[in-house]
């Protein structure tokens, strides 16, 4: 049985580590699960960079259009791998207020990190989307894909923005995720598909993959070229 209403998981993968060879293999496995779940028209949105190698096999297998949604985590000043919130494509700020307090970040530090994140988001928007407008999703399902859910704030930022495009439904699809984060995401998404649900901390997305690496910009651009053709 799934752990939460609205969650689809592979129970046999629950709480396991290093189960996917890489992001592409995880995407192919997600596509098998999603094949009978998406009614009508849908658009796959990848959160770059790590979400695109997962999303591309899904879009191929299900014959769906692929787009990017540019959201960025707001990095902790002394730990660029972790964040205390995220920015939506139109610059709306989502803060993990409890973490901000726990880290004892002052207003100046928060404002400085938000400004840096906004600059980075604008650069990536120009690099990867070239200023293209986001599509109208009226009557369509938006499938938002990332390589995992740790804090979940980038996914929450993506879903918050996607809702402004008037989709019929929103689905979050990830190979791996922390249960408490999935519960938070389910408050914004119609459904969540997460193959490998893990219930305990410490949690790292990388621990689900045998081959983990930072996805370079040229890989993002190569995958985009395939779908724009």
Describe the model.
There is one protein chain. The chain has 229 residues and is α/β, with parallel strands linked by helices. The protein has 2 domains: 153 residues, Rossmann fold, CATH 3.40.50; 57 residues, Ybab, Chain: A. Helices cover 36% and strands 22% of the residues. It is built from 7 helices and 9 strands, in the order E-H-E-H-E-E-E-E-H-H-E-H-E-H-E-H. A 6-stranded parallel beta sheet has the order 1-9-8-7-2-3, with helices on both faces. Helix 5 links the parallel strand 7 and strand 8. Helix 1 runs parallel beside helix 2. The mean pLDDT is 89.
List keywords for this structure.
single chain, 229 residues, alpha/beta, Rossmann fold, Ybab, Chain: A, 2 domains, 3-stranded antiparallel sheet, 9 strands, globular
In brief:
The protein is of the alpha/beta class and 229 residues long. The protein has seven helices and nine strands.
Q: Indicate the CATH class of the largest domain.
A: Alpha Beta
Q: How helical, in percent, are the residues?
A: 25-40%
What's the order of the H and E elements?
A: EHEHEEEEHHEHEHEH
Question: What's the domain count?
Answer: 2
Radius of gyration: 17 Å
Q: How are the strands of the biggest sheet laid out side by side? A: 1-9-8-7-2-3
CATH fold description of the largest domain: Rossmann fold
Largest sheet: 6 strands, parallel
CATH architecture of the largest domain: 3-Layer(aba) Sandwich
How much is the average pLDDT?
Answer: 89
As a percent range, the share of strand residues is 15-25%
Judged by helices, strands and strand pairing, the structural class is alpha/beta
Low-confidence stretches: none
N-to-C terminal Cα separation, in Å? 41 Å
* Record field, number of beta strands: 9
Number of helices: 7
**What best-fitting shape do the alpha-carbon axes yield?**
globular
């Amino acid at each position: 049985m799934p752990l939460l209403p609205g969650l689809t998981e592979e129970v046999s993968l629950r709480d396991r580590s290093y189960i996917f060879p890489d992001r592409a293999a995880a995407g192919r496995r997600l596509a098998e699960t999603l094949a009978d779940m998406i009614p009508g028209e849908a658009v796959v949105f990848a959160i770059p960079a790590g979400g695109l190698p997962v999303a591309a096999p899904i879009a191929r297998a299900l014959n769906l259009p692929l787009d990017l949604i540019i959201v960025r985590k707001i990095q902790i000043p002394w730990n660029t791998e972790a964040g205390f919130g995220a920015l939506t494509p139109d610059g709306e700020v989502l803060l993990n207020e409890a973490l901000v307090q726990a880290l004892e970040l002052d207003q100046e530090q928060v404002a400085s990190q938000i400004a840096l994140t906004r600059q980075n988001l604008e650069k990536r928007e120009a690099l990867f989307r070239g200023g293209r407008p986001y599509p109208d999703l009226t009557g369509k399902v938006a499938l938002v894909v990332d390589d995992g859910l740790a804090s979940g704030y980038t996914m929450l930022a993506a879903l918050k923005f996607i809702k402004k495009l008037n989709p019929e439904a929103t689905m979050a699809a990830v190979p791996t995720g922390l249960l408490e984060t999935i519960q938070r995401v389910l408050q914004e998404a119609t459904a969540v598909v997460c193959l490998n649900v893990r219930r305990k901390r410490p949690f790292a997305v990388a621990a689900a993959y045998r081959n983990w690496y930072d996805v370079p910009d040229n890989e993002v651009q190569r995958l985009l070229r395939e779908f724009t053709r």
